[in-house]
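Page 47, continued from p. 46.
Same chain as before, 940 aa.
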Amino acid sequence: MPSSDSGHGRPGGFPGDGAIDFVRAFAPTVVPKHGRRKSLGTSPPLFVLRVPATMYETGVQRVVEPLINAMLTDNSRQIPFARLIPEDDHQLLVEQAGTELTKGGTNHTTPDRHPYFHTMRDLVAYIREKPANWATQGSWEKELRTHACEERARRGGLLSFAQMEPSGPDGAIGGAAGTAVGAAAGSAIGGPAGTAIGGVAGVLTKLTWLSFVQRGPRRVWSWWTSRRVMRGWLGNEQPATVGQNLFKVMNDVGAQRGPHLRDPNHMSHEDALRELDWFVLRALLEDLRRPPVGRLRPARRRRTCRPVVIVQVPPPGAPGARAAERFLRALHRCQHSPRSTARPPGPLVLAVGAPSDDLLKELGARTTPASPEAPARLVESSFAAAAGHLADKGGPPVLVRLDETELRSEGTPVGSFEPDKKFTFHRYVPTTAVTGVTVLAVAAAALIIPRWIGTPTDCLGGTDSVAESNPGGKIPVQAKDWYDAAQLAIDAENERADVYADSGREVRTVVVFISQIPTTEDQTRFDGTIPELRGIAMWQRTLNEAAASNSTLVPLKVDVRTTGEGFRNAEAMAEALVREVRAERSRSERDRIVGVLGYAQSREETKAALQVLGRARIPTIGTTATADEMAEGDASFSYWPFTPANSREALIEADFADRKNIVALPDSEDKCAPADHAIVVESSTDLYSRSLAARFIADFPGGETVLNFNQEGDFDPPAPGAEANLTSADILARRICDTLSERPRSVVYWSARAKDFTAFVNSMDLEGTCLGQDITVLGGNELTNVAQTGVFRNQTWLRLYYSAHRMPYDADGTSTKTRQFVKEYESFVNDTTDGTDPWKQDGHSAVSYDAFHVLSQAVSEAYQSDPAITRNSVVIELRNGVRFDGATGSVSYAEGSNAPPVDKTLVLLRQLADGPEAVVACGAYGEDETSEKQGPPCAS
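Result:
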């Protein structure tokens, strides 16, 4: 591979009509004035400078060498840059790019060390060099970890000392390690210092050395690296999944891609190289995410320039052409894929040469499936216009074509690109000074401030119980009338869809699975069916009304089907649906089923139903079912959960309980502290409860007491670590009171169902053994529906927090779309029902509204590519990713994944008598909101 610094003769000027504008804009993009360095925080678009294939060599030289010379001063690099010259089609150019970008950088500026890049490059290199390993052994995870550790040690640092080989002949400690250990232990074992140690003492010393000097540092490094990579960026990308580590992910990649890499003629060989190229490039882009320039940290103030990558693109069919285009495709995927997590800033990349028409077509492909009316496409422009695009913030690629006349012209001279700011001292000097001052200030503050103000004891969300701010009774609900009203609204929209079908429009049917039709007040409070059907009816009306003027939309009918109390018949009903769709040729097109919506609860029955639908490849969008286990097995083929999984909710709630002042201090009603202990109440036979409790216990740093509560006496499977299996709510209340007397800073974490919670609350009133102190309960979304009907409004001892999936309409930061939905919901309820509605702040209706939006959008997208609108085409569109701003916040399904939407909104509410109040809001519920920016507990 030629060096990027070689071959610099005296070239002509930079060619092109309007090149002077491009050159003038290029310099401040790469090396802005010191006072304008904030521009380094953006990612400029990819620039494709296409030269005629007949003048490929001359054209590339005329374009590239003036820019390279401008970034060199006295043959030393002032700016980190990489010139990538492919020689064969099997290269991964990103490996050269990362290596080249580490060179250069003068005047004591801040270097880029690329830790992610080096680790990923080493892992990918191992997979490429030994693809046959996975054919002989199932897992090479350990070997990948060892290889990465050894390569890291070769680059120096503390890990390099841990790589010293301690073994001499016959297991003795020898060499440099033996000398060091022998000097310390020689006299103790009867031998002279500095000699090899044999026998039992040698074995014991070897074990000690390996554990504390070799294995320990390796394990710490591999654990820390994996944690940073998985939590930092790879955990949100494919093929990573929840709970995996970096080396497990790459082992899976090796197993999947090994057969493709072993045979260069394999039809998927190029796809395998493209995926590996993407892995390394994605890691490099993460390394290039520099911190904001300026501010107080000296290292940040020494960011003076932007990295530049120049890719030479040979004509199609020439050696190296596939390697160059593979790199550019990987870059385009990182920058513009709807599911990409790559964020600015990034390098300025120029592709110079003769790219193929297929590459240009791919760069100009639509990259935002959710917004077909405004797709991001490759922009073709002159050099003069391209100068303006240098300031774009991550816009579409820019294509500039140069003709032979321009390449033969004199061109525009290019001056030197050199930072205007010089640094006299090494960056360690001001960094050390600032660090010293900061340490002194923090130490002084740690000694002085607590004496002034003490530890904050303000109660999060106030000191009121669910009754004190507005004591009262429960809100009456009208089970039959309210359910019938929602069903009538759906029936009316079904009639509208039939009118569309009669006029020749394509119309299809969606099946909604609910548990049962509520007939009593208690069924209505504990189930959530009515608000869920309201949301479905509202989106059906919105869709069918919009279809009148938009012929690309597919009007939908809704078929509501019950599965019995607790979804007990869900599997049988799913099997019946599969039989129907297999015989649907006899049905009219309007009645052909294109998808399923519903399954609001995570139960063994609903999980089994999803397995049935998954095997039949029937696209299914969940609503409020949250157990991670629901998406496993065959369900992964066609099921997309909508709400955040239990793993994410439990992590946020565990950190919330550990950090926030939610538990009343003993003998005080207005002072609170974080919980140091959790009383976990679960029902182990219930999938939702078992899943949520197990994850909370794993994430909560304090101790816990587990009580397995089931009023029917069903405890199979058992709850690991449960202190008791309880069937009586009275006994449960006593056990909780006993634990609170021993551990007063305990939070009651409720993962059981709402019906059981109501029984517990009533028993606490009857028993009354520990009502002199407020009790804090933290629960999941299961409590939302019943809590907001006012059932607990007379409980002066209860401080209740629970999760929800929509921001309250009057909370700070609530999006315009959410407020718009609430107004439409109020109008819908007022038009269709009588009485006081308790669910204005409930998330069930908004969740089903948005979930139906997801399915309908996939159906309409499928119609554009497949007028037959098969269920398989709907699944394909779902796998391509769906994105929009909805009633619950941003909805963004990742491409190729059936995980819940990325960074989906999760809210923790404090229930008061006059309504819920948001105390924590996590995720993308508004513009520019992310869990990472929101900090703990959202970023846990």
